[in-house]
Amino acid sequence: MAEKLLVANRGEIAVRVIRACKELSIPTVAVYSTADRDTMAVKLADESICIGEARSKNSYLNINSVISAAVATGATMIHPGYGFLSENEQFAEIVASCGIKFVGPSANAISQIGDKASAKAIARKAGVPVIEGSEGIVENLEEGLNVAKKVGFPVMIKATSGGGGRGISIIRSEKEFRDVFDRTSMEAEASFGDKNLYVEKYIENPRHIEIQILCDSHGACVYLGERDCSLQRRNQKMVEEGPSPVVDDRLRKKMGEAAVKLAKAVGYVNAGTIEFLVDKNLNYYFIEMNTRIQVEHPVTEFITGIDLVKEQIKIALGKKLPFTQRQIKINGHAIECRINAEDVKENFRPAPGKITQLIMPGGIGVRIDTHIYPGYEVPPFYDSMIAKLIVYAPTRKEAIRKMLVALEQFMVDGITTNIEFHYSILHTQEFISGNVDTGFVARFLERIKDMHE
Prior knowledge:
The protein is α+β, with helices and mostly antiparallel strands. The chain folds into 3 domains: 5-103, Rossmann fold (3-Layer(aba) Sandwich); 132-201, ATP-grasp fold, A domain (Dna Ligase, domain 1), CATH 3.30.1490; 207-452, D-amino Acid Aminotransferase, Chain A, domain 1, CATH 3.30.470.20. Helix content is 36%, strand content 27%. It has 15 helices and 22 strands. The strands form 6 sheets. An 8-stranded antiparallel beta sheet has the order 13-12-9-10-11-14-21-19, sandwiched between helices. A 5-stranded parallel beta sheet has the order 3-2-1-4-5. Strands 7-6-8 form a 3-stranded antiparallel beta sheet. Strand 4 (77-79), helix 4 and strand 5 form a beta-alpha-beta unit. Helix 12 packs antiparallel against helix 13. The longest helix is centred in the middle third of the chain and has 19 residues, at 174-192. The protein is globular and about 55 Å long. It starts with a strand and ends with a helix.
């Protein structure tokens, strides 16, 4: 039977998946909400179908609507992209029970490794270093506080089903812990439908390093180098690069092998990312695994020459990986900037609106993944990211220069974006020297604030 793939997502990742399918000669179906009927994915897909009203819970998070769309259009595969239902084990299970191929891991793997508390227990058992904290979910405030006192402040309270920087609180005292615990639980339930929390030691000024893996259904599993995602605002990534300025071949091998060991422990199949915190002494600690394609996957595609989305689809079709670990080489340097419709001066407040004019950069080693166009109306209902600007060059120094030139030439009129902020960050001596950590953006904002006072 001929394959047909439904993209259960929106925005730039929907466009990215559709393009990969076109290269593989697989027809596509785009789903859309009433707010997205004029999006680029709808224009590029072979078919499209409306799945509900603008708000995510009525459309992109509505499992019944997505499954109904797949059945109605005769889709044989579903690619969930990132966010929305991409790490929802119930969705993956229903897709499989309907005889449709899920372009991602099994529901069982998502259940085991997607839950952060469960994942830490699996990592410990597999011999992968983890941060000290609760063994699993903490049932109440007092239990959580006991863990915090045992490992010592500061600590992090984290939602077990969290993501995108939500459901995380950094706590520095017992009083603050008591004040914040219930609020974090409510935020987690509102954002993810799961109020469960766990507690772990907070590592000061770490780097955020993640390892990209690919595993097929024939037992092969490889790692494709690392991405440094240390530049973040409110625990949300802004700039990603690969390879990391602080990771050498020895550390890359150790972290890569740890990532593969963890994936194999749960019989993982498809693309995934194992995330680590790395301290100032280059000790690394597993924090979570993302059981989906990442926003920053183009960084890895540039430095390895491997199309991760096409490999995802081929793995879902039962094909073997066409390369071994020894054949994977890291070449050159790539940097990605997430371009958001937001007002940096107003604490990164989303800034939806109509794009009146758009000029995008180009040239050798410049890639833009986006769904916007002149006249496009950025809706207020979804994540504020409107594009990803990725550059590639032989060296990190050249990549930084190429990104600065590309940012200079990226013009979006009609809405407020963070392009100028990226330009400022990449000019700092700290970024140029590779001396940043997850707290750098917050310190940079304070520096700017002090200059204007």
